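hiii, so i know i said id send this last week but things got crazy w the move. better late than never?? heres the sequnce for the chain we talked about at the cafe, plus the structure i predicted for it. fair warning i was half asleep when i ran it
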Amino acid sequence: MTLNKHRTGLVLQSTTTAFQKNRLEAEHKAATAQLQAAEQQFMELEEKKRRLLENCKNLMREAKQACNLAPNQEFPEEYLHAFQTLPKTVDEIDALLNEKKSRASCFTGLSASVVDDYNKGTEEIEQMTLELQEKKKKLDDFRQNISQVKEKWLNPLRHLVDQINDKFSSFFHSMQCAGEVDLHTENEEEYDKYGIRIRVKFRSSTQLHELTPHHQSGGEKSVSTMLYLMALQELNRCPFRVVDEINQGMDPVNERRVFDVVVETACKESTSQYFFITPKVSS
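okay and structure toks below
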């Protein structure tokens, strides 16, 4: 009885083991089939990858040829930026290409000479732009040199005119009148137009007026001219001076005024010796 029970258990165990073996063999067979299918798919994908990579290399070579680049030359940044702005899918690229073709087809009757003229004009504009930049640089250099040279002679000249003005104004002030001397020009860049401007007034009720042939009287012009010459002489040292007929054309009042100024100047210390030649001087 015990032996039969043990035998029955072994039979059941053998049956169970056989069932499991068959199941495992079936699973192994199925897994092997799946593995073979996966390997086949992998090989197909690998081949597709190889073809796509080869196609990409060919397209890259064509793109570099279209951009006039050497095979080993990298794309410039502007090209990369332009590529990045293009559509991402083939359908979008085809749509954009068709749009460009449609727009290009609108330019019917466009001759090659027009394109050549356009390219030639573009090159001329670029060349002229470079020349303009170069000439602007030369102009700036010239202006800088002119400014430096101008400062070298204009500042000393202004200082000299200021000294003349101080003497001239002092002479007029001693006569209870007013006078000024300045360096005058309408445009500082027109160097040939620079000149000395003399302005005087002989009456307190009037304004300073420029010394002209028509505004002042003959005596006033003679006084102004004589005092201006004396202001110049104050800046030029010499052993002696000869003054001949300073009262020519002056009325008695102005004659006395100028004579007093000349005498005062001649009596200063360290001044030049003066010789006065005149037929008469009003007392």
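btw The two ends are 184 Å apart (CA to CA). thought thatd interest u
miss u guys!!
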